[in-house]
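quick one before i forget lol
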Amino acid sequence: MEKTANKQMICRTLMEAAREDRNIVALCSDSRGSGSFAPFAKDFPEQFVETGIAEQNLVSIAAGLARCGKKAYAVSPACFLSARSYEQCKVDVAYSNTNVKLIGISGGVSYGALGMSHHSAQDIAAMSAIPNMRVYLPSDPLQTAELVKALLKDEKPAYIRVGRNAAEPVYQEGEYSFVMDKASVMRDGRDVALIACGEMVAAAKAAAEILEKEGIGAQVLDMYCVKPLDEEAVIRAASQVRAVVTVEEHGPFGGLGSMVSQVVARTWPKPVVNLTLPDAPVIAGTSAEVFAYYGLDGAGIAEAVRKILRPDGKEA
């Protein structure tokens, strides 16, 4: 699988399906360019709705179309979709149980130097708190395509958050078996479990490779299904390792780390460390620069694991 932006894979997958299913409708809030949906608008003009910079209308119109039998995919920057449209997501989509898939593009710190107004470090917590709303953060292009194909088969609400830039492939065609709402165990290990979502999965995988050279076995779980969380996978991992580390492009409250910590504390108590963005406006820079600064890259995650397993600085 080539290095491709996950948002592009969403568009490609929907275009393939739209050729056979005229009920598939894409909606954008002046975001067809940034959301990579210009090809969809060009090829399927009768199945595309442009609302302009009106995110609340975007969600409500999508819900209305869903009530008329359409399969609505509302595409907008995650920072606005999860904040400006929050009431519409809660009432028109989740409470009304409409077949709307909310696509939050350029999630996390994708917008880099544009700052906190354009960052979405709260969306996992916000959207997960809505009853009847599922939350997904696919890790790479192949998984993104498989997720969209699966979502096309159901009529339940969902929020999908993807980044802005080309995503590093972590799976290869023919070697990956996608299962809806089940975490993927990418590596086995008996010392620490790295549970990550979204583009942090590639970083967790890189950290595991670094630690392997030091004799530390790191299990890596791709928890793309943040809600519903695959609790069985969390419990199984916690039972096999000395400590659990979660990694996410999100703030410290209410995200993947909070959910995993609750499960581990309730079922198989042991040390859990959540690696996240800080509870503060993040520094300006590219995604890679921000991740490195806050220890959310392979090297930073590996260092965090060393501190957990070797708190005195000595060999375990």
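fyi The domain at 4-167 is CATH 3.40.50.970 (Rossmann fold).
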